[in-house]
From TrEMBL:
The gene is rpoH. This is RNA polymerase sigma factor RpoH. GO terms for cellular component: cytoplasm. Residues 187-228 are annotated as: Disordered. Keywords: Cytoplasm, DNA-binding, Sigma factor, Stress response, Transcription, Transcription regulation. Residues 85-98, 260-286 form the RNA polymerase sigma-70 domain. It is found in: Cytoplasm. Transmembrane segments: none annotated. Pfam families: Sigma70_r1_2, Sigma70_r2, Sigma70_r4. It comes from Lysobacter antibioticus. Belongs to the sigma-70 factor family. RpoH subfamily. Residues 236-288 are annotated as: Sigma-70 factor domain-4. Coiled coil: none annotated. Residues 61-130 are annotated as: Sigma-70 factor domain-2.
Amino acid sequence: MTSIAQSTALVANNLPVPSALGSLDAYIGAVHQIPVLSVENEQALARRFREGEDLDAARELVHSHLRFVVHVARGYNGYGLQIGDLIQEGNIGLMKAVKRFDPDQGVRLVSFAVHWIRAEMHEFILKNWRIVKVATTKAQRKLFFNLRKSKTRLGWMNAEEVRLVAKDLNVSEREVLEMESRLSGRDIGFDAPSDEDDDHAPPSPAAYLRASDEDPSQSYEREDEEDNQLGLLREGLAGLDARSRDIIKRRWLDADSKITLQELADEYGVSAERIRQIEANALKKMRGLFVA
């Protein structure tokens, strides 16, 4: 039996990554072009991989869910980490989920995989949470390396000491106080201690990780449907002549102010009834795309 490490490595060989495509936007655009699998196709591919170790089937399962990894990664934007890094960690979780997915359990892969994807992202966040940029400018680096030896005693500096250190190192008093606060601080565990039994203790930082109560498959399907509808709307507008497109945009898509038929009629030098006919024909033509 192929190991998880071997399977993920083989599948990853053809996995698109942001760096290879030049930018994160290009990567996201590329993965959104990959078709979403139907239930039947997903189960067929999962059985091919589960029963015959078909890596091509596994690769197709992974590729078809890369857009969902992007969706999950966007939920962790507030942690100061690059979303591209989170996506790549999530992709590892996705590949592990594909390895373990059982199509006979009656759930979609997206519902099963979300736990593996988030687990990899959480681990990445935990590893990087304590990386603090202590000194980012030349003045701050000088302050960082000289502050301790500039202090005359242990403990917090008084106002006069702060003034003297700031003058000696040619920085502001505010920067001295901020740097001392950083150097005097201590790491706070991301997770609560395992022996924590104090009901009144403040929650650990891990408690603030974003989690959605909505079923991931429903969220994914809803957003995918919204993307699809938006794409159809753009396609429909592109198929109209310039006047019809302008009328539809200004009558239905302008959120600021909806123009009247008479105002458009005056602008185009025709009757309001003629504008209504053009609008009705354009809507009928576009409606055909949505019900096809």
